[in-house]
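sanity check both lines:
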Amino acid sequence: MKAIVCNAFGPVENLEYKEMPDPKAGKGQVVVDIKACGVNFPDGLIVQGLYQMKPEVPFIPGNEVAGVVSEVGEGVTHLKVGMRVIALCMLGGYAEKVACAATHVLPLPDEISDDEAAGLVTAHATAHHGLKQRANIQPGETLLVTGAAGGTGLAAVQIGKLMGAKVIAVCSTQEKLDMAKANGADILINYSEVDLKTAIKEVTNGKGVDVVYECVGGDTFHACSRSMAWNGRLLVVGFAGGTIPEFPVNLSLVKGYSVVGVFWGSFTQHQPQDFAQNMRELLTWYVQGKVKVVVDEALPLAQAKDALNKVMGREVKGKMSLNP
């Protein structure tokens, strides 16, 4: 099979498109013939050796795929050859085939296209987990989403609105804000034109925000950390801006709010039953038209470097996918 291979940690440009052995389904696994693979910001960090997880090299990046089951391993009863599925593979997705634990593979409704399904696994699932299990967001609360036009930011806007929150979208351009508004955002803040902390104070009438879904880091995080409501939850999702901020813990003490980590990949391993239930709920919402993956662009697998650079450069509105 063809695959994108990271031979050593380093720049995205060092990735190699090459022939690799076909995977085999071990006990409790299935092999998925990949139709689409989602491209995520952490993929670019992993290949550079900058992520929490550092796999042994060489490895194939890519953690979310949609495709068709081509082989079923021993002990797997809920999946059959020929079944359309979505899968969380953790690694190996930038390829024509991947072997996945059957516990992290779910049947895919015909109503959802491959590119959209591949983008659903990580971005929407992270937002869903963050708002449901980590924030326990309630109807009527305010939700502020940074990077609100990116893959998981846009998902948080949709899901927050669906769960009854008043959604404040924070983006760097009017074009991105327009996309956030089209996906349910109630209030728009362009942080490249106004002081973010001042703007949050104005739109919340001085109360602060109940839940922040923070994807950017750096100065954006610091502004949010000073804009929380009493009993608020500041969700730490990622650092797309490139700077991991340091948090002055006295803010949490004085303002009475929680700083909560959202590491979805770890959640899927520690709470696989909750992960499966979340995915079933997401798929139901999708078929009902309540959530939607916005695919910015789908590129051939061989152009994985271009897709990653676009994601890492924060030029994507919605999701990128790769098609083997």
User: Anything to note?
Assistant: The radius of gyration is 19 Å. The domain at 2-108+299-323 is CATH 3.90.180.10 (Quinone Oxidoreductase; Chain A, domain 1). The chain has ten helices and 15 strands.
